[in-house]
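Schema walkthrough. Field components (list of strings):
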Amino acid sequence: MKRVVNFQENDPANEAEWQFKDTKTENKKQKHNKKNEKFNAKTKRLSHADFVKKKEEMLAFRKQLPIYTGRDAIIQCLKENDTVIVMGETGSGKTTQIPQFLVEAGLASKDMGGVAVTQPRRVAAVNLAKRVAEETMTRLGSKVGYTVRFDDTSSPQTIIKYLTDGMLLREILSDELLLRYKVIVLDEAHERTLRTDMLFGMIKKIQKIRLEKHAEGGESIQPLKIVIMSATLDAEKFSEFFNNAKILYVSGRLYPVDTMFTVEPQADYLDACLVSIFQIHINNPRGDILVFLPGQDAIESLTALVSEYSAQLRPQQQRLLACPLFAALPPSQQQKVFDPAPENTRKVILSTNIAETSITIPGIKYVIDCGLAKLRGFNPKIGVESLLLHPISKSSAWQRTGRAGREAAGVCYRLYTEGAFRELEDDTVPEIRRCNLASAVLSLKATGINNILEFDYMDRPSRASLVRALEELYALGAIDDKGDLSDLGKQMAEFPLDPTYSKVLIQSKEYGCSLEVIAIISLLSVDSIFFTPSDKREQASEARKKFLHPDGDHLTLLNVLKSYWEVKGDIEWCKENFINNRNIKIALEVRDQLVRFCERIDMNANSTCGSDTDNILKCFLTGFFQNTALLQPDGSYKSVAGSQLVKIHPGSAMFGKRVEGIVYNELVFTTKHYVRGVSAIQSAWLPLAAPKYFNNFQQQQQTPQRIFHPQVAYPIMSNIMPSERTQGVFSTY
Ligand code: CDP
Ligand code: MG
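Field assembly_structure (string):
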C-alpha cells in the first residue's frame, strides 16, 4: 500500500514516497539511558572546581540568549516603570531570564518580596522552575520553586516562583494584596486563558491599591511591579489596558522556515501526520520533527502508530523515536522530549500546543501542523461546556511554524490548504469569551469583587455568559437570591476544584460518603489509573473486567482503589492488572490534600456509606445535574440540558448498556458527542439533587418525558436579565 501526502511542488519530501510494508517485524526496543548530563548534573554532589566550571557554563549559556544583549536596557526599563510589557520570540529567554534579571538588579528580594511568574500550564511551570534552579545553581524549592495545583515545591526562601495562573488566583484569597511579591510576571499573556484574563483585572487593581497605601505612608506596603510577557504582537492592546505601559521588544533569533501547504484538504489528519512523518524521515536530512496535534488521544494513537511502523524501517536506515508531550504526561516521560536522541535516531515529538510558545524543545528542524487544537468551549446547543476540536488561528499557525527555525533553517508542513489557511481567524478568541464562567465568577466573588458585570475585563465577556454563570452558581447553591456568596459558596471557593466538584465534595457530608467521594474525585483528577500498552490492548481490557462495577465508571474507580489498598499498592499486582501505579499514587497525594482542605472547613472526611453506593452517585448528581442524559425509547441517550444526543464513550464501563439515566464527567466532541466518566442514575434522583434546577419536577411528574426539559425559573433571572428596567440591580453583582 502506497500513501503520500502531496505538499506544494518545491517540497523536498514530495520527491519520494514512503512505502508501508505489510509484514510486521518485531518492535525493537531502543535502549537509551544516556542522561542529559549537561543540564541534569546534581549540583549537590559537585566538587568546588566542578561547581565553578558548571556555573561558568551556565552563565555562558545565558549570555548567548538573544535577550541577554538587552539585559542592561531591560533592567533600566524595569527600574523606571511600574508596568512593562515584554514581547519577544519564543525561545529568546523571556521566561527564564527576566525573573533572574529582576533579582540580580535588586528589584526583588526576600525582604522586599519575591517574583511570581505565572504560566497557563503546569508542565511549563514545573519545567521552567527546574531550569532556572539549574541556571542559578540552587536546589529546586529553595531560591527558585514552583507551585501548581496539588504540588508545591516553594519555601519561605523562594524568591522566584513559577506558578500556574490558577494558583496565583488562589493566593489572592489568602493574601489579597499579594504582599509576599514585589513583582508579578504574567507570562504567555497572548494565550488569554480565562485565569490570566481574570488576573489582568485583579493585579491592575492590586497595583493601584498598593501604590495608594504606599503613598499614604504605609512603608510596609511596597508598590507592585507588573511585567506582562507574550510571544505575539498584540502589545498595544496590553499596553492600553495597563494605562499605556511601556513596551519592550526583544528581538529573537529566527532562521528562515519554508512553509508548505497540502494540495488537497486532508480527510484524516492522523493518517496525514503519519504519512508526512515518514516522508520527512525517509527523504530529508537530519533534524527532529515536532508534530502539533489537538490532544492526548490523538497523540497516544499516533505514538503507537509511529512506533509500530518505525519497526519496519530497513536496518541501515536511521531510527525514529516517538516522544509524546502533553500536560498530563508523567514528568519522567516529559524529560525524554528534552534529552538528545540516541545515536543514529531521529526524534519525533508529538505535542499539544504546549510546544507552541511555553516550552522550547531543542533540535527541531521540521514542524508538522495538523491545524487543529482542542479548545474549551461552551456549546450553547447542549448547554454545557465541552472540549471541541477547532481550527487554530493564523497567529497560532505562525507560532507553530516558528518552532522549525530556532537553531537553523527549517521546514513547516501544514496539513491544510493555503485557501484553508486564509480562512483562519487572525487570533484565537480569548477563553473568557467562549467558556463557562462559573468558576471564574465564584473566584471573583470570593475575592470580594461582587460587581462582576462591572469588573475591569480586557475583553468583556458577553453579559449573557455572565448571567449564565450566575445562574449556574445559583443552581449549585453557591450564591443566594441577591447574588451574594452563600456559606456553601464560600466553602466551595476554598477548594482548588471546579465549582461542580467542590459542591459534590462538600455535599458528601450530607450523604455520609465523604471517604468514597473524595477518593473518586482524586482518582478523576489524574489522567487515567488504567494502563493500556498499545500492543496489549486486549489483555488490558480483560484485566479491567474484574473491577467493573455495574453502575459505571465512578464506582469502578473505587473498586480499583479498594483492591489496590488490599494489596498495599503492590507493584507486581499493578503490572498484572494494567493499573498505572504512578497515577494512583498521585491521586492519593491529591486525596491527602483534599482531606486537609476539608479540615480547614471542619468537615469530617471519613464518613462512609459502605455498600449503599447509590448515595455516592446521588451525591455526584448534586454537582453534575447538568451533565445528565436519559434513555430514549429508541435506546439512545439525550442530555437533560439541551436535549442533545450523546453517546457513551467506548472506554466507559457503561458502554453498550441501557439504563434509565446517566451522569457523566465530561462531554467530548470528536466525530460524535461522546460522554466519558459515566454512571447509572435514576431520573427520580434529579429533583432531589438539584431542587433549584428541577424546581417544577413535581408538577410534571405525570408526564415524565417533560421532566427532561427543565424549565429553569430562577428568582435572580428576572433581576439580572439585561434590560433597562433592571440596570440598578446590576450593581449588586
Ligand atoms: O520565554 P522564552 O520563550 O522567551 O524563552 P525561555 O523559556 O526563557 O527559554 C530560553 C532558552 O532556554 C530556550 O531557548 C532553551 O534553549 C533554554 N531552556 C532549556 O534549555 N530548558 C528549559 N527547560 C527551558 C529553557
Ligand atoms: Mg516563555
